[in-house]
Design goal:
- α3 packs parallel to α11 and α9 packs antiparallel against α13.
- Helix content is about 55%, strand content about 10%.
């Protein structure tokens, strides 16, 4: 009996299906919808129900339009096939189920190819407030609605192009030690850019103030309000020099956030980062988080 209960479940960190997939070395996987338990479905319902009023108050209008365009069901975990049926005709993007961690280059190259690596597990119903790793609520309700917006989608693709530019550049280096040292800095800069935009970005609102477009905020009941309302948060106009040199920590609310004017602005900054990779302007950014592991480095060096 206990084995049957354990198998029929897709709770984050406790899903045998995911562990088996990782054990086989699978990176991209099917979404075994029949494994979602009643507790998994309850977690989705409760997460969606309590987030909806906060989205209506704090989210940018492109996100709210995206929720409607995808026809996301508030009552049950979405099927990625249904999401993609609405999403792909709009911007070419599609959600692609993964077993977990993807090396850095593979992740960013998925964006370049308009594929979004999507976690299929969901946090436990007893721990709705915080999860240090992504789950399907974060990915589908935080990220994917933004992918319905053409300008945002183009910016996301351009971020993937930054990774491709870096891989092509450093694959040709004869000095491997220098390549590893500089590539560590470039990956750090790219990760920081992604963090302060796609995950925790704010955007100017036409009627004044700011609204949220970053998925880490859009999927957090507490932090979405904190990011806009709290006097403890520093909010600054986006500055690329600052962003690529600013470390971050994941285990608490973010004290510093950056504001873009529009998604055209975001696209322009991503292109500027790509130019900086080519001209060595991010070959020696400040140390600190995030740490870059050997697998991430290899994923870039082996890409070309």
């Amino acid at each position: 009996m206990s084995q049957a209960v354990a198998t029929n479940d897709l709770t984050t960190t406790r899903a045998p299906f995911i562990e088996d997939s990782k054990g086989r070395g699978d990176m991209f996987i099917p979404q075994p919808y029949e494994l979602y338990s009643d507790r998994n479905q309850e977690a989705w319902r409760r997460l969606y129900e309590r987030m909806l009023p906060r989205w209506e108050k704090y989210a940018n209008e492109h996100f709210l339009e995206g929720i409607e365009r995808l026809a996301i069901d508030p009552k049950q975990v979405p099927r990625l096939d249904d999401i993609n049926r609405f999403l792909k005709p709009l911007t070419g993007f599609e959600a692609k189920a993964v077993a977990g961690y993807i090396p850095a280059y593979r992740f960013f190259d998925c964006l370049r190819r308009r594929e979004f690596p999507t976690t299929i597990t969901i946090r436990d119903v007893d721990t709705l407030d915080y999860l240090p790793e992504p789950d399907i609520f974060h990915d589908v309700s935080g990220h994917v609605p933004m992918h319905t917006d053409k300008d945002f989608a183009e910016a996301l693709v351009r971020i993937g192009d930054v990774a491709r530019t870096a891989a092509e550049k450093y694959a040709g280096f004869s000095d491997r030690d220098r390549a590893l040292r500089e590539l560590d800095s470039v990956i750090k800069a790219l990760a920081r850019f992604f963090w302060f935009t796609i995950e925790f970005g704010l955007m100017k609102h036409p009627q004044g103030g700011v609204r949220v477009y970053g998925s880490g905020l859009l999927s957090s009941f507490g932090e979405i309000a904190h990011s806009v309302d709290s006097p403890d948060v520093q909010r600054y106009p986006f500055q690329l020099e600052w962003v690529v040199n600013q470390y971050f920590e994941i285990h608490h609310y973010q004290p510093l956030l950056f504001v873009v004017d529009s998604f055209d602005h975001l696209y322009g900054e991503a292109e500027r980062l790509r130019q900086w990779v080519m001209s060595d302007k991010v070959a020696n950014v400040s140390p600190g988080e995030p740490l870059v592991n050997a697998e991430d480095l290899r994923s870039f060096l082996d890409a070309v």
